[in-house]
């Protein structure tokens, strides 16, 4: 096994005449926490979605966990089982209980039996601070609680890569901290994380590396100290001036 978890090389993607990813290359190491920042429309979500083939590149190479997912013959379902994704809008099943939401994927995919899935589900709910909500209906939860359930659900597949696309952007401000705290704990546990966020405090505190996207390009990347204290790229400086 190599230490490289995600290898992206010269990836391009267009929607019609809109060239949204331009020669993107990036390697992410096992256990690394990479935070992606950049203005709206710069291609961050498209990039993230490519890592589990929710989008396919027009050209270039994407290797995840040793699988070349830019090759259409690769069994993407095998790769996806190892990649959790957490979205801005939770994407939970509103008609199921909290615990049922968490148990669903591992049971359906035959990874765990029901007893095992329930045990793990309750442990994960404890981890995200929602042990008492196992039997609650998802509909009754606050946004912050829903997002913590969504994180627990993605962890139920025991992934080794977690992708987060603006996980706190849809939350009321007072809920953001609880979700970020859960993500900070995960980062400490050594899971590979790729996080798109506008939470610069989180990026500073938790990221091993910050990647700045703008106009479909990685304009600059580096350790958080460098990115926030000594940005080199003009567009990055301008962006930071607006968001900080
Ligand atoms: P970000 O996440 O940084 O805000 P996106 O990756 O969502 O950026 O979008 C990058 C560009 O691609 C935008 O111009 C957006 O309108 C366009 N885009 C994204 N998804 C699609 C799609 N499915 N079809 C057409 N255009 C899209
Ligand atoms: Mg986006």
Automatic annotation (TrEMBL):
Any GO molecular function: ATP hydrolysis activity
Keyword set includes Transport: yes
Top-level taxon of the source organism: Bacteria
Pfam family, one: ABC_tran
Protein name, as recorded: ABC transporter domain-containing protein
Keywords (A to Z) from UniProt: ATP-binding, Nucleotide-binding, Transport
Domain annotation ABC transporter: ranges: 6-240
Species annotation: Leuconostoc fallax
């Amino acid at each position: 096994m190599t230490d490289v978890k995600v290898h992206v090389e010269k990836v391009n993607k267009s929607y019609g005449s809109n060239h949204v990813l331009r020669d993107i290359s990036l390697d992410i190491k096992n256990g690394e926490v990479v935070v992606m920042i950049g203005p709206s429309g710069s291609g961050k979500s498209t990039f993230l979605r490519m890592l589990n083939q929710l989008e396919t590149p027009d050209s270039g190479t994407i290797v995840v966990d040793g699988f070349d997912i830019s090759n259409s013959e690769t069994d993407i379902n095998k790769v996806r089982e190892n990649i959790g994704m957490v979205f801005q809008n939770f994407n939970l099943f509103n008609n199921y209980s909290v615990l049922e939401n968490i148990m669903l994927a591992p049971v359906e995919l035959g990874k765990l039996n029901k007893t095992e899935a329930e045990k793990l589900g309750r442990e994960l709910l404890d981890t995200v601070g929602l042990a008492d909500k196992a039997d609650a209906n998802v509909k009754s939860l606050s946004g912050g609680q829903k997002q913590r359930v969504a994180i627990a659900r993605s962890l139920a597949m025991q992934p080794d890569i977690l992708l987060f696309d603006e996980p706190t952007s849809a939350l009321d401000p007072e809920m953001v901290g609880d979700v970020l705290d859960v993500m900070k704990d995960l980062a400490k546990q050594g899971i590979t994380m790729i996080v798109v966020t506008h939470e610069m405090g989180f990026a500073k505190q938790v990221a091993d590396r910050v990647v700045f996207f703008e106009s479909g390009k990685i304009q600059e990347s580096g350790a958080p100290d460098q990115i926030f204290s000594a940005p080199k790229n003009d567009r990055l400086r301008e962006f930071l001036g607006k968001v900080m």
